[in-house]
Give the backbone structure.
Amino acid sequence: MFSHICIGVSDFPRAWAFYQPLMALLGVELRFVDEHKPWAAWQSKPEPRPLLLIGKPFDGAAHHPGNGQMVALLAQSRAQVDQAHRLALVQGGRCDGAPGLRPEYHPDYYGAYFRDPDGNKLCVVCHQAE
């Protein structure tokens, strides 16, 4: 369904320091990083897409987080959701919903919500029963 998702950032080195360990924890492979543009992308395997990209806005204007936008990243276990949430907060993120079951979505939905250092809303979620 998706080719790529871009997340705007205002400070690339700060965003890189936030996203690189988070994506590594989730087992998502780095496809490229170019600090001169600046931008970076990760990809799921075995397919080359979809990509998740971070970078300064293409038009050169200041980044502003959207209201109502969120990117949800898939975790393989509830423990991985917990780990990702803790890591995000240590890396400068802000809690926007502690890890836990959210049966209003479905009985096995276990997610955590946080904001990156630029205020972009992210979720890490596991859909598996444990």
About this structure: The two ends are 28 Å apart (CA to CA).
